[in-house]
Amino acid sequence: MMHIEPTGQVLGATVSGLDLSRELAPEAFAALLRALGEYGVLRFPAQQLDAAALKAFSARFGSLQTGVSSFNEPGIPEVSILSNIVVDGKPIGIADAGQDWHTDMSYNRTVGFVNVLYAIEVPRRDGRALGSTSFANMQAAYRDLPEELKIRLKDATATHDFNKFWENMRTRPGSERPPLTPEQRAKRPPSVHPVFLTHPLTGRKVLYCNPGYAIRINEVSEAESDELLARLFAHQLQQKYQYTHQWTEGDVLMWDHIGTLHNAWPDYEPHEHRLIKRCQVLADRVFDPGFGLSPTR
């Protein structure tokens, strides 16, 4: 039987009693959606999944995005490989740590809904797990915004650009990322979204404007945009909104992109191996009326 235990912190809950390699019953799926809206980050411990099962579970929540890099599961491009492992001089995956705070897929016209990550190898030092992932609660961040900002930005939109994130990663020490090709940039053109979204699972407002991809608030001058973005970014990253997950092998971690930001910490060395497989789910169904109530949706 499924059991959901909140962390007691600003985000996070552990879900036990589910085997994610098996098809979800409609009632379990609906309960997971409610928990996802409430807690933002869900941990499913002690799972045993192959790439096909990870894809099948993730696809229950929406369409899956294929990665821009070549580090995907052979024959299953919707499953990305995140790793620092090098075999015969060649990396087997793309590093996801040290990327700073962001929300995956906010650069898409159809934004991201959830990420689903499955931990296979977790780096450790002196018995302590490394490579933790931190999250920030954007429902709480909106709630605490000064009223003058809520009024000022009530109908504002922001432009999100994948290239901002990619170029920031290219400047990191040791990075071997090439610039995006014109073809890759064409696949990830900038997109525009409201600064404040209504969360489809809770009906609450969220602050949907992250430092990884947001480049401009469109209704104001460039100088005013820079000032507003700096205020929003500083506000949303206050410690009181943050929760950190420490990984264990067999963890499946699912988090809500609409209501959270995240940041993976690069506190491990090349010889301390990390291997995680990931699916990124688009928000192409979650805004539909009745999503999660019918086993066919």
Fill in the keyword field for this structure.
about 300 residues, three-stranded antiparallel sheet, about 20% helix, nine-stranded mixed sheet, 21 strands, alpha+beta, Double-stranded beta-helix
Explain what the structure shows:
The longest helix is centred in the last third of the chain and has 15 residues, at 222-236. The radius of gyration is 19 Å and the shape is globular. Helix 1 (26-39) links the parallel strand 2 (13-16) and strand 3 (41-44). With 297 residues, the protein is an alpha+beta fold. The mean pLDDT is 92. Helix content is 22%, strand content 29%. The strands form six sheets. Strands 1, 2, 3, 4, 5, 6, 9, 19 and 21 form a nine-stranded mixed β-sheet that branches. A three-stranded antiparallel β-sheet has the order 18-12-20. A three-stranded antiparallel β-sheet has the order 14-13-17. It has one domain: Clavaminate synthase-like (Double-stranded beta-helix), CATH 3.60.130.10. It has seven helices and 21 strands.
Concise synopsis of the structure shown:
Helix content is 22%, strand content 29%.
CATH homologous superfamily title:
Clavaminate synthase-like
Biggest β-sheet description = 9 strands, mixed
At the first level of CATH, what is the class? Answer: Alpha Beta
Total of domains = 1
Shape: globular
Helical run tally: 7
Judged by helices, strands and strand pairing, the structural class is alpha+beta
Order of helices and strands: EEHEHEEEEEEEEEHHEHHEEEEHEEEE
- N- to C-terminal distance: 23 Å
Mean pLDDT: 92
The percentage of residues in β strands lies in: 25-35%
Contiguous uncertain segments of 5+ residues? none
User: So, CATH architecture?
Assistant: 4-Layer Sandwich
The radius of gyration computed from the alpha-carbon positions, rounded to a whole number of angstroms, is: 19 Å
User: What is the CATH topology?
Assistant: Double-stranded beta-helix
Helix content: 10-25%
Number of strands: 21
